[in-house]
Predict the 3D structure of the following.
Amino acid sequence: MKILFATSEAAPYAKSGGLGDVAGALPPELNKIKDNEVCIVMPYYGTIKNNPEIGAEYVTSFYMPLAWRGTYVGVFKKVIKSKGVGRNKRADLTYYFIDNEYYFCRNNNPYGYADDGERFAFFSKAVLEFLNHVDFAPDIIHCNDWQTGFVPLFLKAFYQEGEKFKNIRTVFTIHNIEYQGKADPDFLTEVLGVDEKWRNAATFDKLINSLKCAIVLADKVTTVSDTYAHELNYAYFAHKLEDILKENQYKTCGIVNGIDTKLYDPETDSTIPCNFKASDLSGKAKCKEELQKALGLPVRPDVPVVAMISRLVSHKGLELVERVSGELMNMDIQMVVLGTGDSRFEDLFKFMDYAYPDKMAARIMFNGALANQIYAGADFFLMPSKSEPCGLSQLISMRYGTVPIVRETGGLVDTVPPVNTTTLEGRGFTFKAFNAHDMLNAVERATEFYKDKDKMDKFRAKLIRYDSSWKIPAELYNGIYKELCGI
């Protein structure tokens, strides 16, 4: 099968969140599967275009109509050579970059502009139009989040009758339903330039809605965990689209994300002070010591370090931490927080850092190397999310032998079953209700478990060995593709 993976970001070229990680790791894994040929298409952001180390080559350029506009489209590509891995001996991976300096060469941020709707409407149409100019005819176009939500619409409205397009099937993955790509009603004709007969499919709550459009028109809809797929049938999680999801439940399923286990490998990670593995955890103790030193915390092997690496926003459950912050600081623990976000929570952690210098180290920033050092050096990783489509941090923390403490929602339920502290079945400490004292109780249970060093080390080793790679999710996605193609 030939698969085109359409995304607004993909590591290592552009990444602002989990989508970038997924788009950076899933396509290479799909490309390992026998008889697959996978290409990625993404915007040619200025940060990519102006980086001489990337060295993308020019392919072609043309003008494309977007409603009344004639828009320039440049196509560049980068081929990642491979000798062939696993089941597929022809494993070269091609990245196509869609170039338009007006839309994509701005500052370092891929999103957050007043014309984001127009920018990604342009990209969605260019995803299809560029296929007329390259030697690649996909069987599947796999779209991701609202930025590619109009691809199924453009396919049906303008391209489906063409020889190269008539057999293409679309898969649309919801990574976070909170972001939907909303626009005024005249966006349909003034920007998308499609016929009025498509208005109902593209409209929700009197606005054009890219995410809703994709849910209705794509051949298959997936979410990034099985539990999240079920949660989206309820208003609490679905941001008003629950009825749309219910109507399209027949074509919706959830597949839990994986992580790049080569990138996140405590045995080879060059960013951490000391490497370690499941059979020899001595290096993890050294990582903890060096983390405590680097963050100005007392070096105490007897006290558990509880870490959070997160966007500092409400739906990550930080109001629970805020509610019991004093009680947390009265416990014999150390807390480490890394992230940026709402001033309310940035100020909370800055104050805790100031008021409890021996117990709290807050770093209000994003630093990838420091994040890995925290994953490696912490004992527990706290994720009290109000909602979590999948979550990658709990998977990364387990990879480094750091025990997750999570609320039972979304992908956290699917990846972190509660531990039985006698048999060591399960993968972490959990709590159900979105309640601060239930979260506090989970932290207390975790810190009590920490006192049994032998059990703690056995459990750490088990977590490190847990297979959180993309191999199984890629096979599941491949099964969906084959079903749509009638293979």
